[in-house]
Amino acid sequence: MTAHDGSYAAEAPPRGFAPRVSLDALRDYGVLISLVALFVALSIASSAFLTQTNLLNILDQQADLGIIACGATLVIVAGGLDLSVAAIFALAGVMACKVANETGPLLGILAGCGVGLGVGVLNGLLVTVGRMNSFIATLAMSIIVGGVALAVTGGSQVIVEDDSFRFFPQDALVSGLTRASVALVIVVTVAWFVLARTTFGRYVYAVGGNAEAARLSGIRVNVVRGATFALSGLGAGLAGVIVASRVSSATADAGAGLELTAIAAVVIGGTSIAGGEGAIWRTVVGVLFLALVGNGFNLLGVDPLYERVVTGALIVLAVSIDAWARRRRS
Amino acid sequence: MSAPRGSTSSGPYVELRGISKRFGGVQALSDVSLTIARGSIHALVGENGAGKSTLGKILAGGIQHDAGELIVGGRAVRYRSPHDALVDGVTIIAQELALVPQRTVLENVFLGVESRTLGVVDRRALLRRYERLVERSGFALPPSMPAGALRLADQQKLEIMRAIARDARLIVMDEPTAGLATDEAKKLFADIRRLQADGVTIVYVSHFLDEVLSLADTVTVLRDGCHVRTAPAAGETRDSLIGSMLGRPLTTVFPPKAPPPPDAPAVLSVRGLVRGRVVRGVDLDVRAGEIVGMAGLIGSGRSEVARAIYGADHRDAGAISVCGRRVDPRSPRHAARAGISLLPESRKHDGLVMLRSGVENITLPHLDGLSRAHVVAPRRQRGAAAQMGARVGLRAGRERAPVFTLSGGNQQKVLFAKALMHEPRLLIADEPTRGVDVGAKEAIYELIVSLAAAGMGVLLISSELEEVLGLAHRVLVMREGRLVGAFADGEATEGNVMSAAFGAVAEGRSR
Ligand SMILES: Nc1ncnc2c1ncn2[C@@H]1O[C@H](COP(=O)(O)OP(=O)(O)OP(=O)(O)O)[C@@H](O)[C@H]1O
Ligand SMILES: [Mg+2]
């Protein structure tokens, strides 16, 4: 494949020496190396870490964040930002429960996903046709959607009695793998394929890298950008449904802060917040990295207060490496 | 700053000893040693990718050399940033201009060196300084105009004013005349000479060898990152420079013209094209196999005509037909579908996705044909890009690299490959050879001529009059949004085209 992720040094015609370890290489693979190092360290430090139960548990717990982060990757590579995913996540859960109670579990699950897609499409329209800055548009949308979720629930928990609503149960499907984990793996695979292999994926990179050049190349820039928001909304809706179905209930304030954690995972993975660069594998690495940090604090019994400090420091580190690499180019 | 004012070519100012620089796997400069005399105009010439811009950036602190010594004013230096270099009086006017387009001329000129009172920018004091600067430089730009609204030539002036405002003693100018019309280039030369008379040393990078020969005191030739020769310009000729740059002589520049048969059908006809006040009623035809040149001063509306035909800008009125069929290009997508291809004027802003590889860029508009069920076939994509790259003279393999790592001229070749990939029926080429070296220019000219011979129509916009005259079967001249002259092949001369462009002679309205 050609470089999806900015690793190009090896592609330049060789003239003499092998490429030295550069800042770009650090940005490209540093996070992967850190992930492996953290993994090894935790395996040594805690006997409970390297067990099938613990690892599969981590995967299950990351399903919602992972799915949302995949959508966030598409949006960010296309040069946007989606701050509404946490609110969509909550509304989708609430709507899924409501509709499940009114009609049936399956319709409830579809309704939750549909709400996510619908809000995502609205975001897309605001950003493209409405020419709004995506930060502001999705911030406003997040407030609106959060308000709607509160109005729908009246501030209380919505509970589903019907057991078949538990389409994503906490119990394992096969050998410890839950349906939620399987959903995560499928979403990651599809998102990777779309971004890395399809024409749409190429357009996403082009639009995020230089929208005017993309437009002059005959690409429907608005359609591409709008679609990234729609997919991000759909992902958030699915994540909301998975979590609601897992516990057969939903509240309007579920998932608070999820939008920022998702962006953090994307950035820690090394996808540039400036758009035009990045990859799904990076996001997977970013999500796993955050998950291992959390798991490590948990297993080693460190005060979870410090987890936030560490996460924040990681973001600073990731973004400054990106900024250095970027400065050297100009 | 240490330079005595008014000193002429006297003694070394900058000395490079064995300077090397590599980027990843590319050795951009290897072991380059040369001396730049104080107060001289020192030209750098070489093929695309020879390392000229890299050398300029090292001088001005934009990047750092890996090995070797840089001695400025007798002191070994190693600039960590452009700011460091500026403290020593060294600055660069880059190949891709670096202005803040939304901010005013005034703000851009004094960016970073504002007059402040208690940390608050003092606009009055700035304006007074600006007036003095206008006097000193002889450039009168409107101080409150946004820099992005200035014409390219004026942006260039703005950059020079900026350098003077910072008291620069050595200015690196990287292809300052690429994209300037002949008359504006002449004005720039006068400005450069004035700077020299003021004691400023100029390092001048250009692909226009005649320019170099008439302007420079000394010429350095680079090839593949190596220093070939530094010699007085007076002892060089165009051929001697080309020989050392390319390692081979270049005989003919323009291929012989092959005008289309008189009954060739029109691929493009435009009637009554209007866009605001910049395009005021333009009629034109391009026939299959015909190369129609468009000359005119910068700002005469040529690029705007091109963009309106391509659907890149909205048009207020005008009928457009391609191959006899009415089309209504409301967007570039429509135009591309109709068989029109545009090579935009600014590769950085309108042409290329700098972070992506040449392969991605070249194939971007053509992915539908290189994919099955919307899944890209990477091998076919790479193969197609490599083939096109070879046709425009891109060295094999270079198309794999991200475009921002390519030299300016090679970026232009990528842009060309992209525009030509699906053999459009009409190519609108706006400044097609901007920043391209003499050898590659020849290749591009041959390509244009051979495509035209195969039946493609070409609308060629160029500020290099020589290029328009050398290639076009018919020359149209624009002034103030209107076509003011049309010259058949043989009638067009530098004299009559220029006088039409300036408005001295108003030939009949034409199509
Ligand atoms: N940031 C970068 N990363 C990687 N390679 C680079 C970078 N900048 C320049 N190069 C490479 O270094 C070589 C010299 O480039 P440079 O821009 O100095 O050429 P140039 O002589 O100015 O060419 P042109 O006439 O086309 O402007 C080229 O092979 C180019 O691809
Ligand atoms: Mg250059």
What keyword list fits this structure?
heterodimer, A: 330 residues, 13 helices, B: 511 residues, alpha/beta, Rossmann fold, 6-stranded mixed sheet, binds adenosine-5'-triphosphate, binds magnesium ion
Sheet with the most strands, sense and barrel status of chain A: 2 strands, antiparallel
Portion in strands of chain B: 25-35%
Strand neighbour order, sheet with most strands of chain A: 1-2
The CATH architecture of the largest domain in chain B: 3-Layer(aba) Sandwich
- At the fold tier of CATH, the topology name of chain A is ABC transporter involved in vitamin B12 uptake, BtuC
Rounded to the nearest angstrom, the radius of gyration of chain B is 23 Å
Oligomer: heterodimer
What structural category characterises the helix and strand content of chain A?
Answer: mainly alpha
Average per-residue pLDDT of chain A, rounded, comes to: 88
- Average predicted local confidence, pLDDT of chain B: 88
Question: How would you sum up the major sheet of chain B?
Answer: 6 strands, mixed
Helix content of chain A: 55-70%
Rg measurement of chain A, Å: 20 Å
Structural class of chain B: alpha/beta
Characterization of the model:
Chain A has 330 residues and is mainly alpha-helical. Chain A has one domain (23-329): ABC transporter involved in vitamin B12 uptake, BtuC (Orthogonal Bundle), CATH 1.10.3470. Chain A has helices at 23-45, 52-61, 63-77, 85-102, 105-128, 134-153, 179-197, 199-209, 211-216, 221-247, 258-268, 280-300, 305-329, and strands at 158-159, 249-250. In chain B, strand 23 (474-479) and strand 24 form a beta hairpin. Chain B folds into four domains: 1-89 and 169-252, Rossmann fold, CATH 3.40.50; 100-167, no CATH class; 264-339 and 425-511, 3-Layer(aba) Sandwich (Rossmann fold), CATH 3.40.50.300; 349-423, no CATH class. Chain B contains 17 helices and 24 strands. Chain A binds chain B through residues 1-3, 6, 8-19, 22, 197-203, 205-206, 209-210, 212-220, 276-277, 328-329, and chain B through 22-27, 63, 310, 312, 331-333, 335-337, 342, 344, 349-357, 359-360, 364-365, 367-368, 371, 374-376, 378, 381-382, 395-398, 400-402, 404-405, 418. Adenosine-5'-triphosphate (ATP) binds at residues 23-24, 26, 28, 46, 48-54, 95, 405-410, 435, 437 of chain B.
